[in-house]
Amino acid sequence: MKKKDAKAEKQRYLQLSELGTKFNLSFSSHIVVGDKIVGLDGIKKQLLVANLNDKLDGPYIIDLAEVSSISLKKSYGNIMPGELKKRGLEEFLNYIHLQFEYKDDEKIIVLPFYEREKDGISNRSKMETYSNNWQSILSKIIGSEKKEIPIDGELLTEGASFNTAALTGESKPSYFEF
Q1: DSSP code, position 156
Q2: Which end of the chain, N or C, is surrounded by fewer C-beta atoms within 10 Å?
Q3: Which residues contact 28 (CB under 8 A, 6 or more apart)?
Q4: pTM
Q5: Domain ranges, ordered by start, for the chain
């Protein structure tokens, strides 16, 4: 089974490389998310997104030079009173999306990273890590690190660490610097 998976992965990468050549892109990184494959050309600051099937189709480019912010959007299912005492917040996670907001207009592109119905619970943790990493990398490329603190409070110094595990499900404290 592993040989078959490795062969399919190699085939997808070759198809992505061919698409990159067609669009004059050279990928420094790529990832399969759901039914899409994403390739990053860090030098040209462009993402190529294509649908996964026998051949990669429906490709489009996200020009990061035109993007003002990239945020991570998470949606959780209904949580009944007392359920968080028995189960962790992450068990209620329905989806994780990367949202690209453009500078000049109201254009927004949403790239699904994890969808519970399609990807299952077993992939949640891995895809959550990948989505956080990609959001961080892409935000650095566009030059806008997230500057919001996802809790109420007043920041008295230039930076601080917050344990936001109960809100975000992240295991490590978040550090914010302004």
Answers
A1: -
A2: N
A3: 40, 41, 42, 43
A4: 0.70
A5: 2-146, 147-178
